[in-house]
C-alpha cells in the first residue's frame, strides 16, 4: 500500500511540475496541540513532536516540486506567554530536532538547502541560540534552496528591526532620509535574500495570519487556509492550493500577453 501511495504522489508531483511552480511558500504550522487531543495522546507535547517531524516531510515535498524557499512559522514571540512547561519543552524539542539535523537528514545535502533561523534570536535560551547559529554556519555555503525557520518571530518585530537598521544607516551617513522608501525597508527584512512570497498557507482552519510575513504577503501573494491540522498536511491537501496557484498564474500570464498585443484601429 505504501509503495502505491508513493507512486501516486510521484505521479502527481510530475504533473504539477509541468505547470508554474511557486518559488516561495510560507507555512503557519498550526494545530499541533489540537491534533494531539484529537488522536487521544497523553500529552499535547506529542503534537509538537509530530509537528517537527511533519516539517521535514512537507519540506521534502516542496523540494521535489522545485520550490526554492520554504518559510515556516515555528514559534511566535507571543508563544513565550504560554506555560513555562510548554515553552521549555518546545525549546528542548528545537535543540533535539536541529542539533545534528544536517547529519540525520539527507535533504540538506541532496538539495543544497541553506537553513536560516530568523526572528529575534536574542530571546532564545543560550543553548538554543548555540544550536541555531551552528546549523546556520553548517549550511551557509548552500546556494540552491532556503529553509527559513521563524523562531521566535512576529512581523511587528521584523518590521521594527528593519526600521531600526534603516535609521542606523541614516545615522552613519550611508543613506539620506529622502532615499528611504518601501524598497529600503524591504531590503532590511529577514527575507531580503529570498524571492517574493507566492503562497502563504495556514493549517487548522483558523482564518488569521497571526502576525506572520505581513509585509511579504501584502503584494500578489495567494493566502490559503487549509482545514486540517499541521501534522495531517499531505500532498493531497496541498494539491488544490497548488492547482489554484497554477491556474491563477496562467490567467495572469495570459492577461499580460494580451496587454502586449498591438491595437488595430479600423
TrEMBL record:
**Any one of the GO CC terms:** endoplasmic reticulum
Q: What PROSITE patterns would the database entry show?
A: UPP_SYNTHASE (PS01066)
- Superkingdom is Eukaryota
Enzyme's top EC category: transferase
| One example of a Gene Ontology biological process annotation | polyprenol biosynthetic process
Any GO MF annotation of the entry:
ditrans,polycis-polyprenyl diphosphate synthase [(2E,6E)-farnesyl diphosphate specific] activity
Q: Does the keyword Magnesium apply?
A: yes
- Keywords, in A-Z order: Magnesium, Transferase
Please report which protein family the annotation says this sequence is part of: Belongs to the UPP synthase family.
HAMAP family recorded:
ISPT (MF_01139)
Record protein name field = Alkyl transferase
Q: What is the lineage of its organism?
A: Eukaryota, Fungi, Fungi incertae sedis, Mucoromycota, Mucoromycotina
